[in-house]
């Protein structure tokens, strides 16, 4: 056969019948005929290049053979002639030389070229493709809608058959046609007329679509018709039916792809949405037929087609493989099986299996549906849940038997036991009648330690019939005695002041509790130090952390894990080696001055009672030096005389002493600071030290009568008039110093919780005795606050004595007598008042109820009340407090909030009548009521609503704010914050509604309503008029737009004015709405406030930048007279400047400040100033623009004053002055110069007149511009007025561009060329356009 490499090659396939006799030794060559298109003649010759066909020769007389003969043509014009030739040939034909007779010749198949390696083949009349290749033939691309054209099929070349055969009932497309239900989507809007089959639109769609469908599907095997059945919404879905033979998936997809070429593109048919739903090719079976609860049901879906996957549905819900559902899909056998185990009544209903086969242009959906019903089956169990100890000898010997029974007798009963748990101990099944038993063989090895306490569930399943079953579970808890190990991070020895960890680990994770004890000699004490013990479950580890070891921590540590009634323990011994603590090392001096080459004694002292086995050295500038040891009263001191030899310049020398004990661990003292003063005259010199005038000297507080030899604190001396005077004394009194030391030991000791009540009692007593010392010393006051903060971290049982002692101590230090000490603390800018408030919060938070109660405790200025939340508590939390000054506060938490709390959680409220006044506050706002703290022991991430009613202390104060003390503000020094709180004011009370808990009060200000009412009146009335005027301005601009934008300058001027008006209108609307809400004290969402602030900021910036654009256009027209820029360029620059710049500034501001919660102010919806200085993002651009526009206004005035040629008459002078006044009146509002008065308003304590003037001018800014811009119908007269302004260009400007710019800017004149009309005309035109901005 010739190779079909020539695209112009055409083939005919002939079916020839011949009777011949062929010798056995001969080879047969098929005949090939080639038509010579150039000669137009037929020439017959054997095609020798064709591959030889080996024939199987039978030795029979005169056999009949049928030959397939291929005739290739290179010119299709001979196709009909060749057909006619073979049709008219005289038969039979005798070929004598080979003894063959040709009895019949028929043309069966005609192939035309269709691409490089394919051809389009047709069957002649009476012939059809064999059924074996029916699904493989692909329709050729159709070139016409004419149905009379034959349907060709694509075949690869070279084509070796099979060829078309005589048509029979078994041929391709000759069987009974099938009905295909299909749909496709049109990507257009659905119209109601498509629901009406009699409407014209419906008929048109139906006719056009059916025509396209018939043209596209006509080449499917056995095609009959395609009919549109309806339309449905969802874009437009076309439902249609195709009657055809058994077409393959690929053939239908190929025909679908051709549909759009027969349909108008306006239909927007989506060729990828063709879908066929097949319901009659699915065989759905369900087993068993009668289904009971607990059955295993198999639903089998067999599809008579190839599919990729199957999806199962129960009603409309997709079924996924899971614990009860399993899906087995066999693509080879086209079968999918859904197995449902342990069916219930809920499993009844309709089940569907859906398979989808998708291609680029065709989707087939096979769907089968069946409904099942599930009936109940009742079973009665008789068993119990039990606990088992794995290593119990009795249990290991006898084991354990579990049992369960069914409540009816069944002919076939199957029983199975399932084990589900981390401990997999299995047993032997015993069946007796309608009952079953399960004998467990328990062995210790099967119950590993890490799984002790685990629960294993044994499920008895009794099945009957087709597997209907009932199950009952028995929970078996396996326990095991634990093995405990203990280790230390210190290798059994640790120095005082050093930290260490003791780790206790158990192989049993599911413990109930862990306890620690320290045994020292015959004394055993429990470790109850609050937060020093950290326990974890997985792994079972308890870590005891000691931050600073003392002699109280020496001994044998016993760690005990308890699991129900089983205790498992381990122990380790820790020795604490003496080493002075850093705080107990006295350094003298702390800070002093030294001279060059003059020795200065440096001293470190410790208590003489401590062990002396230390190696002590002095370290000066990282160099170690030996010391001298001597006893000094109750102190043991180590001295080193330091002489500074490097005296080139003033410098600081740092020194400290180092103590090292016998195990090599050391501690460094506080640093001594030495100031070298070379070449300076020493003014003060005595036993304290030396120094120049104004120098300071800091010495420790040494008290030889004190057993430790010194107290905390220091004394600061000042060199004044050649003598040292005490500038500040921060020494603690001996009792308070001892209290502080004991508090530090208590907090870091092992019995903190047990010893806390007695310590609080002593603290209260000593504070009463030292009250005189405290009120005269801020250091002693600060020490008491520090003590309260330290002990508040220790949990305490809610008993009246310790609570009374703690609150009484707080009451003592906030008494009126301590006011001076508090003022000193405020001057030092410490956070002691905030720390005191936080310590009371922590104390109330850690109260542990006794007998589910919190006792009420009160002191003179502090009161505490609380409750324990119990199960089914339906009572609201309602507590009233009254101070000695007869001020009241009520705390109310609703029943709904209480019911949402966890059981045994506590709510505690503490009232303060004095402490609130010691907290930092603004000068303009005062605490005008009691301070109340409410804490909740259970953690709650969501909001928690609480209402508080405060009585006003001073009725003259106004503008109440509900505030809470936010400890995180002001660099964690704390400050008042009103977030989450809303005030409601009455005559004598303020009700605060807050959505969180902490310390609350009310802040109020002096009555400034009379000062603000006039400003508010001006703002509201002015803004209202401004909004109306802006709307009028925008309407007027839209009406006269085409009349006033007849040149580039006028166009850009009105673009700027329109954008200024629009931006200012939006900003004013936002401003007046937010201001009215704020003034009425209405609650506003924080998100709304942030959004309002952003838009006000953005649109006011847009106003300024558009005013800048207007000013720059004016400046450009006045200065660059001979330069012209296109309207598009000017507009692009103006819009970028007017909107892009403000947007960048506004977005940057919110992005930087919002994460820090400092974008808006606390009281109003505007940019923050105090915390983040976000207001500068508005003030700086505004003032720069105002200054720029002020400069432009000055340039305009200079331009107007520029002298003309010749002398001016008095009339011209008056006209110039009038023009100047007119320009100033117009430019002031248009360029935003009135905003310059805003600079005065941001100055502290500025006169109210500036505020009123600023509000008045800017509220009426647009009215001024509107009156100036739209008076006396100036729209049509701009050009005539502009043309009256004559400006002659300076000669110097024509030659030097830079000089021209300078001259235009400053209005300088030089030599003028009066006769040169051309430049003058140009200059006049451009300048007149610039001046038209003012008219």
TrEMBL record:
Topological category with respect to the lipid bilayer: Multi-pass membrane protein
Chief location bin: membrane
Subcellular location, record wording: Cell membrane
Segments for region (Disordered): 1312-1335
Domain SEA stretches: 174-298
Keyword Cell membrane belongs to the record: yes
Cross-referenced SMART domains: GPS (SM00303), IG (SM00409), IGc2 (SM00408)
An example molecular function term from Gene Ontology annotations: G protein-coupled receptor activity
One of the GO biological process terms: adenylate cyclase-activating G protein-coupled receptor signaling pathway
Record-annotated Ig-like domain positions: 260-373, 381-477, 482-573
Domain G-protein coupled receptors family 2 profile: 1015-1261
Transmembrane parts of this sequence: 1017-1044, 1056-1078, 1098-1120, 1132-1154, 1174-1202, 1223-1243
Gene Ontology CC: cytoplasmic vesicle; plasma membrane
Pfam families: 7tm_2, ADGRF3_N, GAIN, GPS, Ig_3, Ig_ADGRF3, SEA
Family to which this protein belongs: Belongs to the G-protein coupled receptor 2 family. Adhesion G-protein coupled receptor (ADGR) subfamily.
Protein name: Adhesion G protein-coupled receptor F5
Species per Swiss-Prot/TrEMBL record: Zonotrichia albicollis (White-throated sparrow)
């Amino acid at each position: 056969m010739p190779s079909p490499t020539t695209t112009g090659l055409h083939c005919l396939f002939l079916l020839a019948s011949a009777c011949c006799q062929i010798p056995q030794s001969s080879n047969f060559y098929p005949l090939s005929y080639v038509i010579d298109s150039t000669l137009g003649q037929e020439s017959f010759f054997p095609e020798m290049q064709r591959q030889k066909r080996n024939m199987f020769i039978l030795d029979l007389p005169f056999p009949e053979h049928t030959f397939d003969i291929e005739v290739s043509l290179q010119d299709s014009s001979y196709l009909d002639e060749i057909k006619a030739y073979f049709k008219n040939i005289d038969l039979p034909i005798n070929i004598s030389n080979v003894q063959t007779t040709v009895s019949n010749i028929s043309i069966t198949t005609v192939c035309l070229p269709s691409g490089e390696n394919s051809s389009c083949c047709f069957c002649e009349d009476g012939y059809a493709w064999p059924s074996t290749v029916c699904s493989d033939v692909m329709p050729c691309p159709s070139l016409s809608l004419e149905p009379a054209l034959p349907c060709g099929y694509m075949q690869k070349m070279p084509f070796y058959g099979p060829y078309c055969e005589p048509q029979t009932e078994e041929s391709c497309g000759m069987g009974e046609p099938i009905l295909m239900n299909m749909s496709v989507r049109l990507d257009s809007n659905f119209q109601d007329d498509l629901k009406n089959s009699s409407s014209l639109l419906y008929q048109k769609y139906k006719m056009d679509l059916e025509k396209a469908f018939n043209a596209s599907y006509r080449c499917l095997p056995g095609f009959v018709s395609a009919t549109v059945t309806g339309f449905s919404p969802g874009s437009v879905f076309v439902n249609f039916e195709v009657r055809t033979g058994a077409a393959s998936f690929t053939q239908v997809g190929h025909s679908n792809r051709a549909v759009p070429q027969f349909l108008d593109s306006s239909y927007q048919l989506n060729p990828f949405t063709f879908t066929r739903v097949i319901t009659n090719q699915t065989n759905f079976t369900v087993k068993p037929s009668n289904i009971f609860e607990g059955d295993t049901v198999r639903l089998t879906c067999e599809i008579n087609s190839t599919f990729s996957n199957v999806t199962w549905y129960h009603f409309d819900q997709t079924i996924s493989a899971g614990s009860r559902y399993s899906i087995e899909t066999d693509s080879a056998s086209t079968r999918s099986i859904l197995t449902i185990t342990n069916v219930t009544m809920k499993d009844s209903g309709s089940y569907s299996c859906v398979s989808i086969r998708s291609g680029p242009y065709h989707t087939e959906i096979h769907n089968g549906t069946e409904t099942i019903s599930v009936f109940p089956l009742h079973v009665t169990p008789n068993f119990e849940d039990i606990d088992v100890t794995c290593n119990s000898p009795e249990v290991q010997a006898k084991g354990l038997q579990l049992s369960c029974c069914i409540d009816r007798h069944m002919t076939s009963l199957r029983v199975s036991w399932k084990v589900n748990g981390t401990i997999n101990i299995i047993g032997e099944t015993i069946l007796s009648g309608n009952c079953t038993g399960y004998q467990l063989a328990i062995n210790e090895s099967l119950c590993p330690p890490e799984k002790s306490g685990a629960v294993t569930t044994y499920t008895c399943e009794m099945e009957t019939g087709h597997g209907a079953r009932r199950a009952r579970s028995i929970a078996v808890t396996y326990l095991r005695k634990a093995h405990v190990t203990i280790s230390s991070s210190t290798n059994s020895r640790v120095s005082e002041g050093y930290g260490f960890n003791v780790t206790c680990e158990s192989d049993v994770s599911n413990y109930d509790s862990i306890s620690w004890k320290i045994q020292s000699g015959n004394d055993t004490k429990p470790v109850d130090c609050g937060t020093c013990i950290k326990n974890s479950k997985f792994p079972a580890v308890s870590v005891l952390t000691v931050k600073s070891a003392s002699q109280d921590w020496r001994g044998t540590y016993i760690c005990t894990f308890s699991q129900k009634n089983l205790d498992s323990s381990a122990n380790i011994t820790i020795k604490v080696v003496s080493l002075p603590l850093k705080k107990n090392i006295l350094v003298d001096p702390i800070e002093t001055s030294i001279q060059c080459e003059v020795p200065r004694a440096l001293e470190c002292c410790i208590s003489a009672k401590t062990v002396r086995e230390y190696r002590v050295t002095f370290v000066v500038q990282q160099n170690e030096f030996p010391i001298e040891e001597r006893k000094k009263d109750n102190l043991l001191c180590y001295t080193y005389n330091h002489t500074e030899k490097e005296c080139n310049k003033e410098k600081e020398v740092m020194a400290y002493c180092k103590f090292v004990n016998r195990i090599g661990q050391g501690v460094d003292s506080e640093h001594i600071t030495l100031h070298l003063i070379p070449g300076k005259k020493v003014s003060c010199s005595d036993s304290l030290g030396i120094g120049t005038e104004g120098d300071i000297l800091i010495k420790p507080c040494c008290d030889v009568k004190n057993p430790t030899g010194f107290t905390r604190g220091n004394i600061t001396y000042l060199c004044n008039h050649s003598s040292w005077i005490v500038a500040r004394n921060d020494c603690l009194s001996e009792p308070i110093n001892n209290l502080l030391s004991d508090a530090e030991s208590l907090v870091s000791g092992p019995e903190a919780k047990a010893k806390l009540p007695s310590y609080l009692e002593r603290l209260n007593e000593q504070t009463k005795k030292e009250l005189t010392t405290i009120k005269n010393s801020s250091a002693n006051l600060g020490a008491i606050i520090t003590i309260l903060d330290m002990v508040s971290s220790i949990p305490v049982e809610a008993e009246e004595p310790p609570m009374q002692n703690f609150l009484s101590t707080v009451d003592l230090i906030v008494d009126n007598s301590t006011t001076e000490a508090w003022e000193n603390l405020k001057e030092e800018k410490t956070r002691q008042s905030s720390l005191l408030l936080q310590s009371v919060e922590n104390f109330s938070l850690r109260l542990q109820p006794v007998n589910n109660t919190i006792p009420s405790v009160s002191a003179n200025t502090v009161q505490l009340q609380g409750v324990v939340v119990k199960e089914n508590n339906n009572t609201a939390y309602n507590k009233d407090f009254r101070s000695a000054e007869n001020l009241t506060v009520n705390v109310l938490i609703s029943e709904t909030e209480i019911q949402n709390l966890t059981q045994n959680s506590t709510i505690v409220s503490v009232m303060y009548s004095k402490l609130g006044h010691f907290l930092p506050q603004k000068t303009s706002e005062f605490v005008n009521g009691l301070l109340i703290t409410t804490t909740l022991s259970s953690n709650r991430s969501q909001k928690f609503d609480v209402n508080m009613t405060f009585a006003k202390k001073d009725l003259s104060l106004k503008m109440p704010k509900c505030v809470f003390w936010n400890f995180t503000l002001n660099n964690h020094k704390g400050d008042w914050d009103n977030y989450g709180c809303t005030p409601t004011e009455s005559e004598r009370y303020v009700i605060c509604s807050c959505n969180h808990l902490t310390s609350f009060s009310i802040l109020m200000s002096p009555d400034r309503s009379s000062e603000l009412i006039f400003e508010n009146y001006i703002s509201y009335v002015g803004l209202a008029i401004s909004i109306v005027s802006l709307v009028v301005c925008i309407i007027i601009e839209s009406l006269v737009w085409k009349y006033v934008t007849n040149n580039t300058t006028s166009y850009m001027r009105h673009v700027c004015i329109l954008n200024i008006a629009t931006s200012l209108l939006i900003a004013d609307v936002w401003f007046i709405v937010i201001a009215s809400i704020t003034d009425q004290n209405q609650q506003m969402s924080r998100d709304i406030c942030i959004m309002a602030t952003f838009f006000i900021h953005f649109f006011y910036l847009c106003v300024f930048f558009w005013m800048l654009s207007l000013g720059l256009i004016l400046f450009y027209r006045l200065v660059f007279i001979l330069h012209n820029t296109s309207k598009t360029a000017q507009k692009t620059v103006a819009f970028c400047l007017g909107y892009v710049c403000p947007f960048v500034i506004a977005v940057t501001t919110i992005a930087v400040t919002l994460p820090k919660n400092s974008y808006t102010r606390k009281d109003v919806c505007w940019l923050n100033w105090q915390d983040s200085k976000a207001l500068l993002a508005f003030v700086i651009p505004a003032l720069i623009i105002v200054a720029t526009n002020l400069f432009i206004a000055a340039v305009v005035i200079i331009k107007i004053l520029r002298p003309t040629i010749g002398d001016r008459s008095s009339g011209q002078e008056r006209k110039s002055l009038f023009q100047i006044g007119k320009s100033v009146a117009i430019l002031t509002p248009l360029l935003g110069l009135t905003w310059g008065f805003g600079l005065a308003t941001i100055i502290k304590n500025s006169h109210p007149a500036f505020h009123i003037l600023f509000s008045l001018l800017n509220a009426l800014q647009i009215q001024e511009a509107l009156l100036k811009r739209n008076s006396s119908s100036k729209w049509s007269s701009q050009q005539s007025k502009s043309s009256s302004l004559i400006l002659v260009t300076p000669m110097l400007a024509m030659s030097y561009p830079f000089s021209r710019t300078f001259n235009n800017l400053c209005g300088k004149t030089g030599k003028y060329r009066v006769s040169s009309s051309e430049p003058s005309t140009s200059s006049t035109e451009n300048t007149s356009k610039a001046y038209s901005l003012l008219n």
